[in-house]
Structures are given as C-alpha cells and as structure tokens.
Design a protein that fits this description.
The complex is a heterodimer of chains A (113) and B (110). By secondary structure, chain A is mainly β. Chain A contains no helices and eleven strands. Classes of the chains: A mainly beta (113), B mainly beta (110). Chains A and B meet through β4, β5, β9 and β10 of A and β4, β5, β9 and β10 of B.
Chain lengths: 113, 110
C-alpha cells in the first residue's frame, strides 16, 4: 500500500513563480525524501530530511517536515522550464527493519513559459 | 544514472513467455530494488535485495521472482508474462538511504 501521497496530482505555474507540493504519509518514519523524474527517465534524488529535522534547503529547494501532521512540503522557488517533471516523495517506515523505501504517486509539475 | 544499467531497454513479448530483466551496477551498493511504474500508481516495489542471495518481496511480487548471485547484478524474472505486467520497470540501488535509479525497461506483453 502507498505510504506517501502527494498533493496536488498536477500543477501548472508560470516560469518564475514558486511551486509547492505536499506529501502526506501514514506511519512514523526515519527519513523522507523527494525525487524528480523527467519524462522517460529514471528518478533522481533531490533531498532527504530526517525525522528530527523540520526544514532543509538545497539551492532553490526548500523542504519542510511536520511529523505531528505526518506531512512534508517541497517548495521550488523561481521556477524554470527545466523544472517541468514529476516529483515524488518517498518514506522509510520507522517500524521497518528491511530498508524498504515506499514512493507516492507523484505530482506532475508543468512550468509555463 | 550513477553507474546503473538495465537491459534490455525495450522488449515486446507474448503472453505466457518467460522474461528476464537485468540490472547491473558498478557502485558496489549492497541494496538493490526492482520497481514497476504504471499510470495512476506511481512506483511500486516488486522485490528487493539486501545482499548477495538475500532477497525479499515488495508490495506487488506475485508473478515475479528475483535472483542476486553477485553484488553487481540483480535479475527480475517474469515466469509466464501476462498483459497486466506491461509496464516500465526500474532498478535502483541504495546508499545511505539515497536511491539511484537506472534508465528503465519498457516491457510490453501482447
């Protein structure tokens, strides 16, 4: 069963605007990650946030984590055409000892010129 | 793609035939994973391996088997392909919780 659920399923914004995607999950986690997938390609790791962290930055990316609400958000600032892709959150359940990473269904982001 | 290759990249096969997909890594990562990606379902874990000859099932393992005889190779076998196994298959390795994905194999079962 899906652990993470992204919201919205699809998002279209103008180039230069900020894009925000959300992820909700069901069980306690050790880490939450965000990945990007360009059309026809494999996923690429963007950022990892640990359960004891609340916010993390990487370039134009900002990730927040609220473990009390079991949710995370990914903010992409000053969007570019190259940011057009699908974005997935992935979690590893804290109760697991088997190193399984479970992905959500993704948010499709389209940057309009 | 961080030293991860998949073969073949595209395959069309008939229902009932066996199919083996290969994942090869040069990173010496201990953990390897097979996922399938379908519209509306995201990525779903089929099987994974936490070492040579150590494998376990994921959430959609029925109809699939895996083998890992060497650190660098992880094979996914469809014993008797069905149309429901038409999908894009991704292999991944993991190091320090970060996953590295191969380019994918597009499999069509007719």
């Amino acid at each position: 069963s899906q652990q993470g659920e992204e919201d919205p399923q699809a998002l279209s914004i103008q180039e230069g605007e900020n894009a925000t995607m959300n992820c909700s999950y069901k069980t306690s986690i050790n880490n939450l990650q965000w990945y990007r997938q360009n059309s026809g390609r494999g996923l690429v790791h963007l950022i990892l946030i640990r359960s004891n962290e609340r916010e993390k930055h990487s370039g134009r990316l900002r990730v927040t984590l609220d473990t009390s609400k079991k949710s995370s958000s990914l903010l992409i600032t000053a969007s570019r055409a190259a940011d057009t892709a699908s974005y997935f959150c992935a979690t590893d359940a804290a109760m697991n000892r088997d190193d399984k990473i479970i992905f959500g269904k993704g948010t499709r982001l389209h940057i309009l010129p | 793609d961080a030293g991860i290759t998949q073969s073949p990249r595209h395959k069309v096969t008939e229902t009932g035939t066996p199919v083996t997909l290969r994942c090869h890594q040069t990173e010496n990562h201990r953990y390897m994973y097979w996922y399938r990606q379908d519209p509306g379902h995201g990525l779903r874990l089929i099987h994974y391996s936490y070492g040579v000859k150590d494998t376990d099932k994921g959430e959609v393992s029925d109809g699939y088997s895996v083998s890992r005889s060497k650190t660098e190779d992880f094979l996914l076998t469809l014993e008797s392909a069905t149309s429901s196994q038409t999908s894009v298959y991704f292999c991944a390795t993991m190091s320090y919780y970060e996953q590295y994905f191969g380019p994918g194999t597009r499999l069509t079962v007719t």
